[in-house]
Specification:
alpha/beta; 60s Ribosomal Protein L30, Chain: A; Alpha/beta knot; 2 domains; 11 helices
């Protein structure tokens, strides 16, 4: 049985304060734990319930891909203990405790690829889905404003379906970052070196932007995703170099209040798909 | 103050059983209530909190578009009563009670347009987002399996952001419906009459389907959306006439467990966008 102290320590990881103090986060479910075990992240502990559905050897990737010595603990617990430490309404049969990675943002590398910039997305499900979309479309860096929901929030981690193990998420002051970044870009002559001949742009989706299916899209740049309710802030809008929009079907003016907007994650997916159309 | 009976009656609408018994559902927030008031749905009651932010006349659309006599009740209540009847963690300043519409599915009309078929989508946020996406892309009918989450569940209604007022949702036995529908289609010679020259297809997204960006897509047909975990069932797969897939970027085989799938609503958006590309 888990000690009361251990339960408290693990439960404190449900909150941002506890995660920051311990520099740890939790991830639940076999698929997610497996993805983390084979990733570059450091899995510190795995708690599991032997329910007949879990095969620790092969299913958790312990046979071939996984180096056992990276784990300090691999602990079998009772279902009632899992209930205590889980952040899910319906707990699964395993929970991993993972070190929060210390990613360094390489601005020069950013010049050669497409990355997402996320401004103040508040809903954990939305941020998790955006991370999953980035992974699907081969985008490996996300730069978030400080006000964006914490990507190690258990609800975000679950919604990524494992993509949190592969996409690097940074938290920064976005106005400062993009302003400085534009300086780096100028030093490189406004173009990234030796990586094709499309220029680097800072894109953002706005109601009055140019229809995305009519714009020549670069394979290098930043795509800014705005907040769920108010979109991209004025401060960031001023830093965009290309304003784009997602066409609504049929009506330029929405018919009797036809959908005015799309969910933030859905809009991200539609924009990324257009960039990756090739 | 609302009577205890009234509070109980309204709270019972948070559950499917209560909604079916009373043939009513609830919708919360000014945007959603406004969209419902100007729609063809019957709003039976509106409860509001006078918090200084609500202007009942113009903001609720009562001035021009709205016929006052459709409402039997328009009731000012205290914030504490709103807290009791609301299904939201953070209640808003208005809540509408709406009659569940009795839509009749017109199979002949379906032959001339694009509609969505939803199989066993369980997450309320996903179904709500799918309804919002349908609205954005000018798709006005959704045919759901009986096991799909109830579209009048408060969480679904909120996630539609008002689109529930414009998209018609039907619940049917899908295998029976599509089998019969194929019969109707045959009677029409496999093509719908006088509506362009593309044929009617039953599409579904599968891992091994043809890349959607390489397929000639019809502007008439059914698009089947599968369950979040297991996709489209074998029974429905057997009834598809075109199997399509959404291309993942970069790798045919996912790299070290790269995202294997997309969220159901995200996949729906990507497919609809491709159909509406024109």
């Amino acid at each position: 049985m888990l000690s009361k102290n251990k339960v408290n320590q693990l439960c404190s990881l449900h909150q941002k304060k506890g995660r920051n103090l311990q520099n740890l986060f939790i991830a639940e479910g076999q698929k997610l734990v497996q993805d983390l075990l084979v990733s570059d992240l450091r899995v510190m502990e795995v708690y599991f319930v032997e329910d007949g559905k879990l095969e620790l050897g092969s299913k958790l990737g312990l046979d071939s891909k996984f180096e056992l010595d990276r784990l300090s603990y691999f602990v079998e617990i009772a279902a009632e203990d899992m209930k205590k430490i889980s952040a899910l309404t319906t707990p699964t049969n395993c929970l991993a405790v993972v070190e929060i990675p210390d990613y360094v943002l390489d601005k020069q590398a950013l010049l050669g690829k497409l990355s997402l910039v996320v401004e103040d997305v508040r809903d954990p499900g939305n941020l998790g889905t955006i991370i999953r979309i980035a992974d699907w479309f081969g985008i490996d860096e996300l730069i978030c404003s400080a006000e964006t929901v914490d990507c190690y929030n258990p609800k975000v981690v679950q919604a990524t379906m494992g993509s949190i193990a592969r996409v690097k998420v940074h938290y920064l002051d976005l106005v400062k970052f993009i302003t400085e970044f534009k300086g780096v870009k100028e030093m490189n002559g406004g173009r990234s070196k030796g990586l094709g001949n499309t220029s680097f742009e800072i894109y953002g989706t706005l109601m009055d932007g140019e229809r995305i299916d009519g714009v020549k899209l670069s394979d290098k740049g930043l795509i800014v995703i705005g907040n769920e309710g108010r979109g991209i802030s004025d401060a960031l809008q001023g830093l965009l170099t290309k304003k784009i929009s997602i066409p609504r079907f049929g009506h330029v003016e929405p018919k009797r209040g036809q959908a005015e907007s799309l969910n933030a994650a859905v809009a991200t997916a539609l924009v990324c798909a257009e960039f990756r159309r090739g």
